[in-house]
Design a protein that fits this description.
4-stranded antiparallel β-sheet, 6-stranded mixed β-sheet, mainly beta, 1 helix, globular, single chain
């Protein structure tokens, strides 16, 4: 059974920091293919950070220089360090495979996400 458990969200003031964690199991996904998504009401889920097939990282322009994705292979855990947070970063954050097609063919499993709220 696929399990994706995100944690670490909360309420923070603009300019603050949070560190999100995602522990996952029961999937064939490699930790090297994982990424972080976020979603706000009425909008599509968007990929904000991920590892690339070449072993590097990729970030959405709006979070470059502020967010850092990292991983602990031994713990099957992916992290997202978020600094200099802005109100527009407010969203529910999820982790999953960086490729939407792969998510679908694996059964379209998603965790409960973790809410990040940034006050101005």
């Amino acid at each position: 059974q696929v399990q994706l458990v995100e944690s670490g969200g909360g309420l923070v003031q603009s300019g603050g920091s949070l560190r999100l964690s995602c522990a996952y199991s029961g999937t064939i996904f490699s930790i090297n293919d994982m990424g972080w998504y976020r979603q706000t009401p009425g909008k599509q889920r968007e990929l904000v950070a991920s590892f690339t097939s070449g072993g590097n990282t990729n970030y959405r322009d709006s979070v470059k220089g502020r967010f850092t994705i990292s991983r602990d292979n031994a713990k099957n855990t992916v992290y997202l360090q978020m600094n200099s947070l802005k109100p527009e970063d407010t969203a529910v954050y999820y982790c999953n495979h960086r490729n939407a097609y792969m998510i679908i063919i694996a059964g379209n499993y998603w965790g409960q996400g973790t809410q990040v709220t940034v006050s101005s």
